[in-house]
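Posting for a labmate who doesn't have an account.
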Amino acid sequence: MIVAMLAIMYFMLIRPENKKKKAAEEMRSSLKVGDQITTIGGIVGTICAVKEKTIVMETGADRVRIEFTKWAISSKGTQSTEEAPMPEKEDKKDKKDKKDDK
């Protein structure tokens, strides 16, 4: 029974995590000059230089160059999140007016 539980833990927890780490490492090792990247902090830019453990990234129209370690790269390409529209907040006066109308 214990062996079965360990096998289930391996296939449900450990193995998928190792696959994610391996895929991330392959992506980071395949980076080249000119690629568009996003860092774990959300900074988006284009690679200018690739070194052994770091990369130099250029951001924005003012061409600011920043050096990052390779482990700080989140993804190749730009990440975009589609946010759901926030519900509009009503003013206190609007709420009072609606109560008075009732």
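Reply:
Got it, the structure tokens are right above this. Strands lie at 36-39, 44-50, 54-59, 64-69, 73-76.
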